[in-house]
Amino acid sequence: MCAAVLSLEAVILGLTAPVAIAISDVSPAVAITVGLGLAVTCVLAAGMLRTRRGYDLGWVVQGAAIALGFLVTTMFFLGALFALLWGTADYLGRKIERERAEAYARFDAEEAARGESPA
C-alpha cells in the first residue's frame, strides 16, 4: 500500500512544477528542481520499502510535500491528504505484518506440539 501511495504522490508532485510556474510565479528552475526532485524521491522511496530507510524517506517526502504548500498553496491540502494516506498505509502494513508473524509463530508452535505428541 505504501508503494502505491508514493507512486501516486510522485505524479502529483511532478505536476506541481508547471502549476508553480504558471500560478505561483515561481522560477522555472526552482519549480522543476523541487517538483521533479520530490517526484524522483517518491519513486526512490517506493523502491526502498524493503528497508526501514525507505519508510523514513517516505515520511520525509510527506513533510516536504506539505512544505511545498509555501510555493503552491493547494499542496498544503494535498500534502496533508497524502501524509494521512501514507500514515494509514504504514500503520496498516505494520499491523498486517505483525499479525502474520504471530499467526506463523502459532502455526509453528502447533506443528511442533503435534510432532512431539504420540500419535
Task: Summarize this entry quickly.
This protein is 84% helix and 0% strand. The chain is mainly alpha-helical and 119 residues long.
Written description of the protein model:
This protein has 119 residues and is mainly alpha-helical. It has one domain. Helix content is 84%, strand content 0%. The protein contains four helices and no strands. The relative contact order is 0.13. The mean pLDDT is 92.
Global geometry: elongated
Largest sheet: none
Based on helices, strands and strand pairing, what is the structural class? mainly alpha
Distance between the termini: 44 Å
Order of helices and strands: HHHH
Count of separate structural domains: 1
Give keywords.
119 residues, mainly alpha, 4 helices, 84% helix, 0% strand
List the helices and strands and how they pair.
Elements: H1 2-22, H2 28-47, H3 52-67, H4 74-116
